[in-house]
Amino acid sequence: MRCLGIESTAHTFGIGIIEDTGKILANVKDMYKTEKGGIIPLEAKKHHERIKEEILEKALKEAKLKVEDVDIISFSQGPGLAPCLVAGKNFAKELALKYKKPLIGVNHLIAHLEIGKILTKAKDPVFILATGANTQIIAFEGNKYRIFGEALSIGIGNALDKFGRDIGLGFPSGPKIEELAKKGKYVELAYVVKGMDVEFSGIITQAINLAKKGVSKEDLCFSLQETLFAMLTEVSERALAHTEKKELLLIGGVAANKRLIQMLSITCKDRKVKFSVVPVEYSGDQGLMVAWQGILQSKNVKFDKKKIEEIDIKPNWRIDD
Ligand code: AMP
Ligand code: MG
Fold first, then answer.
1. Minimum-distance ligand 1 atom for the alpha carbon of 133
2. Domains in the chain, start-ordered, CATH in brackets?
3. Nearest to 128 by CA among 265, 272, 288, 321
4. Helix, strand, coil fractions of the chain, as percent rounded to 5
5. CA end-to-end span of the chain, whole Å?
6. 3-state class of 37 per DSSP?
7. Cβ-count burial of 274 within 10 angstroms (0-12 exposed, 13-18 middle, 19+ buried)?
8. Nearest atom in ligand 1 to 258's CA
9. What is the mean pLDDT of each run of 10 residues along the chain (321 residues)?
């Protein structure tokens, strides 16, 4: 069985195709970028609509398939930016109706976790989901995904991007911050862990103010990384202690960051916990995870025109729902 998955929750429009054996057939994506300023949802939507046919064509070519050859179509139903979600939903509906394929709406966050599990062969890890919009420490307990800790205001990627936007690094800023941090030294910033939760926005405001006072970009990038990543490491370690799980799995676009990986590996080594990182290509937003989640939810699905016509987006869908 093959599933074609469509991702469009935020900046990325992607299509992946996977078999139920886990064999990857295609994963093609394109990201909405800006020179300066952050993501404008309506502009991102336009990007997705402009690029969708081209991405589909490329994915089918990579998989050496036609749409007729896939068995199911899945799409990210939420959470995400409503205009972006609508672009993906409309395209998924259009394809499902045209080719008479079952359509499965998946939770984007669960898709991140499940593709991480299959690619790293982790069995029952504590997950750190560190994406643009989301920062959550998650584990599967009592038959559902539970959130053990999370960012109270903005996610870690968005926090880095917000700082980057303010000092003129453009979007996304994470990789540029990582580069600049290599030449920086430590300046003190607030450290805000409340119970199992982390709060980034005040620290970002503080860093922006320090930048205005002339503290160097390099020093602020270095210190932001040290501070925000230490906060994440602290709550992850506590979640490991609480759940007594023996695996930690880092997922999300921010998982590309070498310093974050280093901090978490040191902690895991101390605790004798197996640490895995989802490969960069599959840790940020992409369609493959949506396709795989479609496979996991494919039991007993069939083509149902009325259901497909009624399916809608869920912009605020939480992982523990
Ligand atoms: P996602 O939402 O999972 O696609 O991840 C996108 C986020 O990852 C953006 O906020 C980026 O700034 C961030 N990001 C990408 N690469 C890095 C990096 N090397 N260091 C820190 N953040 C990064
Ligand atoms: Mg994501």
1. 2
2. 2-111+283-310 (3.30.420.40), 124-280 (3.30.420.40)
3. 265
4. 50, 20, 30
5. 28
6. coil
7. middle
8. 19
9. 97 97 97 79 96 98 98 97 98 98 97 96 97 93 94 96 93 94 98 97 98 98 98 98 97 95 98 96 94 96 96 95 87
Q: Is the CB of 155 under 6 A from ligand 1?
A: no
State pTM to two decimals: 0.90
Question: Does the beta carbon of 253 sit less than 6 angstroms from any atom of ligand 1?
Answer: yes
Q: Which two tokens stand for residue 99?
A: 């080719």
Residue that the structure tokens 């800023």 belong to:
173
- Other beta carbons within 10 Å of 121: 9
Evaluate the omega torsion of the peptide bond into residue 79 and state whether it is cis, within 30 degrees of 0: yes
pLDDT of residue 80: 95
- Please tell me the predicted confidence (pLDDT) of residue 186: 98
Residue 172 pLDDT? 86
Query: Do residues 9 and 79 touch, judged by C-beta distance below 8 A?
Result: yes
174 ligand 1 Cβ < 6 A: yes
Amino acid (1-letter code) at residue 3: C
Structure tokens at 58: 């490329």
